Amino acid sequence: MSVKQITKLVNTYPQQMSLNCLLYCTNLAGDAGGPRARAGGGGGASRGVEGVRGWGGVGGGEAGGCGAAALRLGAVRERLRRLARARDSLAAALARHLNNALIHLGNAAHEPDPRDTRRHHAHLLPYAPFMRWLKDMDDKAYDGLVKVYVGTWARVHERTVRAACENARAALAAAPPDRADLLLDEVLNLVEELCNAEQDFCTQFFHLDVDVKGESSDGDGEKSESGERGEVPRKCGAETRRFMSELFPTLDSELVALVAHLERSDPYGAMRALACAGRRVLGEGGAGGAGEGGGAGGEEARWWRGALAGVAVAAKRGADRAVAERLAALPDAVKQASTTISYSYICIVFVNQHTLL
């Protein structure tokens, strides 16, 4: 199978060829260093290699042995060069195809429903084996695809979060204060679902916080128990945190602005926001429920909880200001209340005396 045929299959049947292409390249690598290459066999060897049939028996002497060894070494080098060219051609075809797919799906994400922005996960997940191969074989192509995905979908998520916060502010203007909790919960639930879905997808698709080169050097390797069960590993290492921060660059500022608006519209708005955000930071509520992820094994791996901690801090500061204002108003309230009580007492005494007279 030629590189041109591989490229055509990759562009036409990406889902069916995801594993076949990887196995083909692996077989080429094995042939280049295996017994067939050392014996001068294999379909990819040059014509000079095909003429070397004996293992050092050309001339029966040292000269013949050295010449045969040189030919065999040249054959191995030629196979390695062909393999490198096939690898580069396959990497270029994959990078070009995935780049076009990422841009097309990003341009198509203009639906009014924010949850529709996650439809691209189903389209891109079949390419996950290719991304793993690119991360191992071509760092430049892999990094380029990461930049394209982050640059494209960061704008989509920024628009989604901003629209959700603007809708909440408009609803708060017409809703009573006791409905502020429900409106804020709706926004936080939507953003939480979006962040968790993106973390699961990006961890699986881009193989974040996975040493692909280290695993591939161990041979066939062993699948983890979670991978065998088909579960998505929840990791939040340095690579995942950096990736998610770049994917949601305005999340913290939008939510903090919403908390500030709630604080201005309701004297106790910051306290309501602190209660909503605090439950999620502590893992006691949210879209996934308290039991999702099995407590310490899953919830602590969520990037969303760390991002929401900044919102909880802003709400806590607003709640502190509200409490300080109430405490500062207490002396005036007590003085006013005492004045009112004294005036009422004087009026009662005057009425009683007037009645006696």
Give a count of the beta strands, DSSP E runs of length 2 or more.
Answer: 0
Residue windows where pLDDT falls under 50 for at least 5 positions: 13-26, 28-60, 217-232, 288-297
Strand content: under 5%
Structural class: mainly alpha
Tally the helices. 15
Topology, element by element:
Elements: H1 3-12, H2 18-33, H3 35-38, H4 47-50, H5 62-107, H6 120-124, H7 128-137, H8 139-174, H9 180-205, H10 212-216, H11 225-228, H12 238-247, H13 251-265, H14 269-281, H15 303-356
Helix pairs in contact: 1-5, 2-5, 5-8, 7-8, 8-9, 8-13, 9-14, 13-14, 13-15, 14-15
Describe this entry's structure for a reader.
One of its GO terms (biological process) is exocytosis. One of its GO terms (cellular component) is plasma membrane. Residues 214-233 are annotated as: Disordered. It comes from Parnassius apollo (Apollo butterfly). By secondary structure, the chain is an all-alpha fold. The chain folds into two domains: 1-88, no CATH class; 108-212 and 235-289 and 298-357, no CATH class. Helices cover 72% and strands 0% of the residues. The chain has 15 helices and no strands. It has helices at residues 3-12, 18-33, 35-38, 47-50, 62-107, 120-124, 128-137, 139-174, 180-205, 212-216, 225-228, 238-247, 251-265, 269-281, 303-356. It is elongated. It starts with a helix and ends with a helix. Residues 13-26, 28-60, 217-232 and 288-297 have low confidence and may be disordered.
